[in-house]
Amino acid sequence: MKYLKTIILSSCLAFVLFNPQAAECKDNSHPLNLSQDEIIDRIENRYAAKGFSANFSQESTIKAMDITDTASGNLFVKAPGMMRWEYEKPDRQLIITDGKRLWVYRQEDNQVMVGRSPYFFGNGKGSGFLSDMKIIREKFNIALDDKSTGKHYVLKLIPKEKTFDISLIYLSISINTFDIVQIATYNSYNDETKIYLKNIEFKKHIDDSMFYFEIPEGADILQLDE
Q1: What topology is assigned to 2-212 in CATH?
Q2: Residue 153: closest CA among 172, 130, 179
Q3: Using one digit for the tens of pLDDT, what is the confidence trace for 105-142?
Q4: Torsion from C-alpha of 5, 7, 9, 10, nearest 10 degrees
Q5: Are 98 and 208 in contact (CB under 8 A)?
Q6: pLDDT (tens digit per residue) in 39-70
Q7: CA-based nearest residue to 172, from 203, 208, 145, 192
Q8: DSSP per position, 78-117
């Protein structure tokens, strides 16, 4: 049941088919030979604002079943812990968390899945670190990967505590802006989820109401039990 729920949520969450270069601005003031700690410092400074929005594209692959799902939509994030994933393709869907509660709403089915946010986004799961960049240092061993190029730093994140949900994460970071433009996550079965982010906009204020979901009257409610 736990594996099935992970697949369900993974299928809901974010990935691929974007050109991350579109989110970059020309700025040659950033040297290419930064250490991994210096890179993390700049990422934390970049995301020090209260929140941001972005367009996302997602590709999730379940290796054992040879199944790949794609999706795209809009993302809103507010620190600490709040995220709103608005899926537009292939089906309209919402994944909302206020840092404590989680709602997954499928409009077509008038169905809401309800659960506790830390169970699904805690310790960086489900790209949860986007709402609190300090999690990267606290929960992962970090290495600068040799996949880094002239356009992107690539950081390899390995959880300090082994979990089923995350065995490895690769972050691609713009050398020019220090925006996170790609997240590639692998679980213990080597299933892969890739998320590309573009049109990232940092915001001084995002209303908390965006991270609360009022369950529609007559909706079918399913509990995401642990």
Answers
A1: outer membrane lipoprotein receptor (LolB), chain A (2.50.20)
A2: 172
A3: 998 999 999 999 988 888 788 889 999 999 999 999 99
A4: 160
A5: yes
A6: 999 999 999 888 999 999 999 999 899 999 99
A7: 145
A8: ETTTEEEEEEEESS-EEEEE-SSEEEEEETTTTEEEEEEH
121, 10 Cβ separation under 8 angstroms: no
CA distance 101 to 116: 5
Pick from 66-70, 145-149, 197-201: least confident: 145-149
Cis peptide before 216 (omega within 30 of 0): no
- Quote the CA–CA distance of 54 and 95 in Å, as a whole number: 15
* Planar angle of CA 62, 195, 116, nearest 5 degrees: 75
- Cβ atoms of 95 and 85 within 8 Å: the answer is yes
CB neighbours of 33 closer than 8 A, spacing ≥ 6? none
The domain locations on the chain are 2-212
For tokens 């909302």, name the residue: 96
90, 35 contact by CB (below 8 A): no
**Cα–Cα distances in Å, from 62 out to 69, 101, 210?**
9, 26, 31
**Pair 100, 122: CB distance under 8 Å:** no
Q: Report the relative pairing of strands 111-116 and 220-223 from DSSP bridges.
A: parallel
Is 0.85 surpassed by the pTM of this model?
no
Number of residues that this document lists for the chain: 226
